[in-house]
Amino acid sequence: MLLLQPPLKDSPKCRVELHVHLDGAVRHETIWEVMRHKGLQLPGMGSLAELKEALRVQEPSNLHSFLEPVQLYLPALRGDLAVMERISYEFVGDQAMQSVVYCEVRFAPHLLLDPEPVAGMEENGIEGKKTAVTADQILEAVLKGLVRGEEEFGTKARVILCCIRGLEDIAWDVLRLCEEYRDKGVVGIDVAGFEGVPDKLQAANEVYRAVFAAAREKGIHRTVHAGECEGPDSVKEAVEMLGAERIGHGYRVIEDEEVYQMCLREDIHFEVCPHSSYLTGTVKSLTTESKRHPVLRFTEDGASYSINTDDPSLTHSKLRDEYHLLSSWGFNEASLARANFQAALHSFLPLDEKKTLLDQLKVAYGVVEYSIPQNSTTPSPSPSSSSSTPQPLKPSVTFGTWAERA
Length: 406
What we know:
By secondary structure, the protein is of the alpha/beta class. It has helices at residues 28-37, 48-54, 63-67, 70-77, 81-97, 135-153, 171-180, 197-200, 202-217, 232-240, 257-265, 274-279, 294-300, 312-315, 319-328, 333-345, 351-365; strands spanning 15-21, 100-107, 122-123, 130-131, 156-164, 186-192, 221-226, 246-249, 269-272, 305-307. It has one domain: Metal-dependent hydrolases (TIM Barrel, Alpha-Beta Barrel), CATH 3.20.20.140. It is 42% helix and 13% strand. It has an eight-stranded parallel beta sheet with strand order 1-2-5-6-7-8-9-10, sandwiched between helices. A two-stranded antiparallel sheet has the order 3-4. Helix 7 (171-180) runs parallel beside helix 9 (202-217). The longest helix has 19 residues, at 135-153. The protein is globular. The two termini are 32 Å apart. Residues 15-362 form the Adenosine deaminase domain.
């Protein structure tokens, strides 16, 4: 019997992803093809299987080791506008395959420029350096690919631009791009990279404080990588010093109850990436007595969080794998649906587009307004019944282990 699949554009979509890096979400097949075409050295004998294995993070270590494989294929992407448009277009198709209705993809355009200065070429946003293409052109190529993907696959994608810790000289140019392209697909600004030493330098702190204060004045949304490499103080600084509305990862916030409660009160949204949180060694390094994944605490306390892939090229996991992992820990449909509605609520879309997104989720999940007919008979409450409105039950979760993830 022949089974016909509906066009990807028309397939039901019910997921929202807020934390995924474009240069960490490139198809292995595309990396292999582009590297071969450009004559770049491939691992082993140059087979696709060997490339995939080289990009696989084998065991939990640290963020530096986790990100190291990116350097293998980054030269294939840098300065190539056609490749940037291609991987952006393919990214949207991959999102649609995972039933994603809306996503926010992030990247740092300045890290995708030609690595060596080229005399007589355009300024790239970093003082004193010139390259064959500019950060603006890289961004425009990405936006072009995303638009083409949305038209073909029916998944909406918007961009968050990243500042990079240790590269403070690009921060103001990132802000410029956020402002100039805010009506063309850019919805927010981020600080990514290794937490720690650069953040402890007063000069770096002052740069990001000024840039993010300016972003807030201009109405540009803000998210910050924090609580992944460093402890809860990095989350506190992100919220209080940078005015972060969302926290990328943020797992270690639970090590300080005061900081955690502040985040709950202020409805700070946590962008949770289950597989990468283990492969970066973050969960293993928690100082709490229990090694339960922080997302369980978030769920129990009603914290706002979303479910994300982070860098699927490195984790070799798709969004459905993140959901399967959480399901294996006891998360039920209510927990997963709530995460998607929370992601939509905390997305960086304009209010009218956010309302449309929420309406799309309601349709996908079959959320309708029910009313009891006036002539229907309902049992009267017993005299001993409490007149107070019952509180909604929290989804019940039980913790499995990372070792049981298969």
